[in-house]
Design goal:
5 helices; 7-stranded mixed sheet; Aminopeptidase; 7 strands; alpha+beta
Amino acid sequence: MDLMTDVEITIRQAIPQDAAELLRFWREEVVPCDLLETDEFAADIPEAMMAQELADIYESANNLLLVAWADSELIGYLRIAAPDSKQRGHVGELGIIIAQGYRHQGLGQILMDEALTWVATDSDLKRVELYVQKRNLPAQKLYQQFEFVTEGELPQSFCSREGELLTTILMARLF
């Protein structure tokens, strides 16, 4: 079933008013996902603190948080986070997650295209990097479509919920 044809999809930058829905999404989609490094604590921060974080990201020149909405439900996001330092402020780390029911329908490609266009035209970033589990072949394929290259493998760098030590791949794209 193609859920994306049944609803109106909107992609935009996150704003402080998205805090409650982003926290809900984090609890329901991010925390249970064994493909991401997550922290249940982050899902329990106060809504006001999340709203302030979203305001800071929105105002930042080198940070981006895109959100994808199906009608009024948050169904995915893409975050590019760059530190506020002279030494690494030109490097953004990318993270993306799509709600389970909307995966493999092109939403990841849409978010990646929007975000990387922003990097190329509106930011000072010169490098975007990400970490992906070696077992997550669909994600690797998506990143390769956007000219990310594998820079190395990190054996035993991620512990699954079952306690299995997994290999993570570092991928990056230069701008």
